[in-house]
Task: structure prediction
Amino acid sequence: MYEFVTTNLIISSCVAIFIGGSYLWMRHLIKLKERAFATVSRLDVALQKRHRLTPEIVQIVDKFMHDQRDLVADSIALLLEPPVAPAMNEITLLRRYLAHAEKLGEILHFMCALAPKYSAYAEYPELDGLLDAFYANERELADARYAYNKAVANLRVGIALFPATLYAQMVGVRELPQFEGQEAHDMRGKAVLSEMDSEESSVDITYKYL
Result:
């Protein structure tokens, strides 16, 4: 009788530990997801500020970057249709939101790097202040992007191993997309500008940002 009670007690304890551990693990995964989504609001602050700063820049460069009509038109189209920051669990909308930000960022960074190459740039001294404000905000965006990507990486690690993968499915936790850094956009833009300089050509060049 004593052995039976002891065995049942051990089994009950193991079950309780398993259930408790599973609950805590699932709660941990949910918190990782919540932390990642919480950083989206910080991203949105910087992205909304970008949308307020850049229209005036685009309006001015459109006056002298006549060979970049497609670039200007694409930037205007993206600025006119800013996506709304996604709510919790809206991963599809989050992907679209980040893709829009990445595409617009790539276009704007190339445009801002290319503008000073034009002789007509000197005719618009106000551009210097606008570009300073733009790049200052991009640095804030870089900090927000770092925090978001770090939270996304922590979430990815958290659900990578079994049984975390099973728990993640049970509570609806999935991997979130990374937000590509502006540094990558700048590197591609600098490569194009470097090629342009090496060929000693004019600024009649189209950036393949798509």
In short: The chain has six helices and no strands.
